[in-house]
Amino acid sequence: MTYLSVSILTPTGTLAKIDQVEVVVANTTTGQIAILPNHIPLFTRLQHGELKIKAQEKEQFFTLFQGFLNVTANNNIIVMADNALRSEELNVDAIRKAKEDAEKALQEKEKLSATEILKAETTIRRTIMELRIAERKHHTFG
Questions:
Q1: Do 13 and 71 fall within a single domain?
Q2: Rounded to the nearest 10 degrees, what angle do helices 114-141 and 92-107 cross at?
Q3: Taking CA 15 as the corner, what is the angle to CA 90 and CA 123, rounded to the nearest 5 degrees?
């Protein structure tokens, strides 16, 4: 049987290298895609969201905050993400606190620069996604 090999790279290094992958599900800017072995070569932009990898009958979940996905002709997938975490590394309390802090900051928008507003809005979007994935992980592996 043919399998995929997946590498997840971030600016801080390699987050994961997974072999014998059966399927990868990712959110692209044009919608969700599933990649099976022998997929045609593809380079696409990733939207923030969940990356699901099924390998050896187990599912692994990662949160991704934007990036790119490259599928090569030899069944290698390279995911380059601005920020990524394994779902089991998500600290729900810390995520909730970051979301609350960003929401508080936005309540006083007039005191913030455009960059600070953008950063707070980005934090809120990221934390909402992370909480959704953490909740799903809890229900899946509970």
A1: yes
A2: 150
A3: 45
